[in-house]
Amino acid sequence: MAAKARAKNRMDKKIRDKTVTEKNMAEKTIIIEKTTIEKTTTELKNEIRAATDIEDFLKKNRSSMVTGGLPEWLNMLLAQKRISKADVVRGSLLDRTYVYQIFSGDRTPSRDKLIALAFGLRLSDDETQKMLKLSCNRELYARDERDALILFALQQQWPVLKANELLFRHGFDVLGAPV
User: Where are the domains of the chain?
Assistant: First the structure.
């Protein structure tokens, strides 16, 4: 009898924890969705150069600042695109546990893992660039042959397998290789 009660308590706690986590993620998604970029990065850099008081600069430009991190942005994309994490796993060729850890913020993925994730999320090339920037990774560079191939595959909305065939044919490492 006591074992059943403990099992029920554990189950109740898991449900409460999941509900709290989902609520927190929803709140963070709302914060990110409300963030509107009003000024370009160049405009902000110029204002920083001209600023004499950083606090004043921050107050004036709060709405142009990026809030939240990569996990929040990724979860917002899931909601916007109406796809599941399982779809992302299938579309990225990444390990299920690894993908879930990226979305929860428990893992910091490499640039290649993020690019594989972009295919799983069905991101445009611009959205992929934003994700790479947000994660402090180097953006895809059209003068780099491998990056040019990846950009082409993203623009063509190819699945990651077709992108990998292209990379392999040109002698480059493929995306979504095991963790």
Answer: 69-179
Of 86, 127, 130, 94, the residue nearest 110 (C-alpha):
94
The model's pTM: 0.66
Say which amino acid occupies 149: L
Nearest alpha-carbon partner for 47 in 60, 37, 38: 60
Closest to 127 (Cα-Cα) out of 61, 70, 84 = 70
- Helical H segments across the chain, by residue range: 2-34, 41-50, 54-61, 70-81, 85-92, 96-104, 111-120, 125-134, 145-155, 160-169
Question: Which pLDDT does position 16 carry in this prediction?
Answer: 60
pLDDT tens digits, one per residue of 105-139: 999 999 999 999 999 999 999 999 999 999 999 99
Fold of the CATH domain 69-179: 434 Repressor (Amino-terminal Domain) (1.10.260)
